[in-house]
Design a protein that fits this description.
The chain has eleven helices and eleven strands.
């Protein structure tokens, strides 16, 4: 069986660039690094790095062999799983102290806040920590057990996660004030979220439904930045309706009716391996009143 320490040494050699620098990074002598590498190679029956000759070889820049490059790629998966295991137990142990929540931007900024007080009250003496990012980032954190659960726009298709609809959201087409929107929406500059964002996906669905092929796109990573850029005259956008009322009332934006679908589901998402924990059971009661 592959020794995890030896795999760590091998990975450090590649990242540091030499046996000597890997030793300094790991707090090991170059000789100890070399021994661990040799033992791994003997176990696998192949050379993992191209070796120089002489004493200076430990300080020379290393080059991975074809087998070494293959092992490096696979080792990333091994270390990812190892980190996930550590995160799982760490999150379990912290659940009576800190309830950790992941949230996509629209849900985290607008829909989640009313739930926070009740979530906190279920854990007297504990704190609540919320991480807000785009949907893909939030789901990746949940897969790695960095959070107890997540709330997002759209349903997750990741096999280790379970999704439950808890609320409906809607989208709105917005433009700068006093802007006259023509029939050809492709000719305007469109403001859109970054890859991995559920709002970006909804915008792309909207384009498809309406036959829109934008000639110019400006990409921003928050809904708030997009709304303010629209208000400043930078272009038009398709944004969550809940993010628009104050700007519309202030006359800084105007909205337009369309013939496309405007609604989407918001989902409460949990890792399958965390379903029966006290933290998840409490959160489920809060979101679904069960």
């Amino acid at each position: 069986m592959i020794n995890l320490k030896q795999l760590t040494v091998f990975k450090a050699i590649n990242e540091a660039g030499s046996l000597k620098l890997a030793g300094e990074r790991l707090g090991m002598t170059p000789a100890a690094v070399s021994v661990n590498l040799k033992m791994l190679e003997e176990h696998l029956g192949c050379a993992l790095i191209e070796r120089g000759r002489g004493r200076r070889a430990v300080a020379q820049r290393v080059t991975l062999t074809e087998q070494g490059r293959w092992l490096l790629e696979k080792s990333d998966t091994v270390f990812s799983h190892t980190q996930s295991i550590e995160n799982y137990f760490k999150t379990q142990q912290q659940s009576d102290k800190t309830l950790k929540i992941g949230a996509s931007q629209t849900v985290g900024n607008y829909w989640l806040p009313p739930y926070l007080s009740e979530l906190k009250n279920g854990y007297p003496g504990s704190s609540v920590s919320v991480y807000i990012g785009n949907t893909d980032d939030v789901l990746s954190r949940l897969e790695r057990f960095e959070d107890h659960f997540a709330v997002i726009e759209g349903q997750s298709d990741r096999k280790v996660l379970e999704s439950y609809a808890f609320k409906e959201d809607s989208m709105t087409l917005v433009a700068p004030p006093e802007f006259e929107l023509g029939k050809d929406l492709s000719k305007y500059t469109w403001l859109i979220r970054e890859p991995g964002s559920a709002t970006r996906k909804m915008t792309q669905y909207f384009w498809q439904e309406m036959g829109i092929s934008p000639s110019t796109i400006i990409e921003l990573n928050t809904n708030e930045a997009i709304i303010h850029a629209v208000a400043a005259g930078a272009g038009i956008a398709y944004v969550p309706t809940i993010s628009t009322p104050f700007m519309l009332e202030a006359g800084l934006l105007q909205s337009y009716p369309t013939f496309a679908s405007h609604t989407r589901q918001l989902y409460w998402v949990v890792h399958k391996d965390m379903q029966d924990t006290p933290a998840i059971k409490h959160a489920r009661r809060v979101f679904f009143k069960t």
